[in-house]
Amino acid sequence: MKPKFYPEDTIAAIATPPGRGAIGVIKISGDQALSILEKIFQPKKPKPFLESHRFHYGYIKDRESNEFIDEVLVVYMKKPYSYTREDVVEIHAHSGFFNLKRVLELVLKEGARAAEPGEFTFRAFINGRIDLAQAEAIEEIVSAKSEISLNLAIKNLSGKLSEKINLLRENLLSILAQVEAAIDFPEEDIEIMNPPELKRLLEENIDELNRLIENYREGKIYREGISLVISGKPNVGKSSLMNILLKEERAIVTPIPGTTRDFLEEEVYIKGLPVKLIDTAGLRETEDLVEKMGVERAIEKLKEADLVLLLVDAGSKPTKEDTHIYNIIKPYNHLIVINKVDLSMNFLEDWREFLKSLNEEFVEISVKEHQGIDLLTQRIFDKITHNGIPQVLEVVPNLRQKIALEKAKGHLLLALEELKKEEPLAEILAMELREAFSDLAEILGEVSTEDVLSDIFSRFCIGK
Ligand SMILES: Nc1nc2c(ncn2[C@@H]2O[C@H](COP(=O)(O)OP(=O)(O)OP(=O)(O)O)[C@@H](O)[C@H]2O)c(=O)[nH]1
Ligand SMILES: [Mg+2]
Domains in the chain and their CATH numbers? Predict the structure, then answer.
């Protein structure tokens, strides 16, 4: 949507997703919300007025045709105690796209305008009920891909990130106050500024910014998930592993090497992490045109992997070919998995030695006997989250916020540079501090451009 605010418009939309369901909600916000409702709603028990924040039972009727439209519950939320801080009405109707569309059309006929995506939340932001970081948190709640990312978004909605940013801004303001005092008294500027003390304060705040930026990296894993590529020679059990991780027979498994030709992608959760699992064609030199293309694609897929599982077969000795494949995988974040340890004729010792000589850690499993799979998922989790402990992340910025944090950090680093000079200039320090301050303000939406707002709110669905 264009992030323009048309406060005179009363807006309306279907707020529930399309498809079969028990109820569907139509939301109206703006000055005319109540009067529109009064035109189309007939309470079962007529009342002199519709009490705010109470459900009322009755019927939606078209006053022109006197047509009965639906049996509903309605709630009116008098401003400012509503989502948008405007008068808001919700009509809880029977679900079903055509029914909801009919009620919405009636609402529009009586004077509302169809809302743009995110326009309700945009109003909540413009009317000062939430800041920009909280508006983004609402979108993140709606689109959360894992419970952990949902929890993070809820924390941000409750204002955790905003609090942190405000604290940082207060810190910067008090540093700025010192520097500005020095500008006012140029004779004693160095004493007033107390460079070692300023340096300490700046470093403290840079550390804090670094922590937040680092949290972004961790949070991203939960927010967007990771992609896990299963790679290795033909017939080592890649598709079998894919199936066992998915807990369904998704990929075709046969004893014939070269079974999987194209890659297969499926979503699964590993310890709460959203994971895109990718099974690929076995890597080998081949004359078969289709298989050759599959192998090329398998190698191509490595590039998008957050983690590559290199699967090897305990049933055969490590060979030159294995070294060759290992060298292909090596540059990527990888974990080596020895499969088929159940085979009585196995070369497990050779593999252990081979991998130890390469200084590689590995996990031993048998897909067939369901052995070592829990350990494997744990190791996958550890590899992805680095420290392996499911961190209790308090405050996690999103990409836009992280970029603003990095910009702020950049200015503080420049201020630090200036401080290290023999005669640091208070004017330069003040300028960098102000820049950093305004980068932080951007996070909360106090100085956002139309483009930024447009980008954020266009990600919302209609009705939110
Ligand atoms: N003994 C034993 N056999 C296994 C194990 N895992 C897989 N297999 C067998 O190994 C054969 C190949 O398995 P797949 O999963 O198709 O192997 P793949 O790596 O996907 O093979 P391609 O798609 O040809 O590259 C099948 O006969 C599986 O039943 C295991 O842990 N132990
Ligand atoms: Mg396969």
Answer: 11-131 (3.30.1360.120), 136-445 (3.40.50.300)
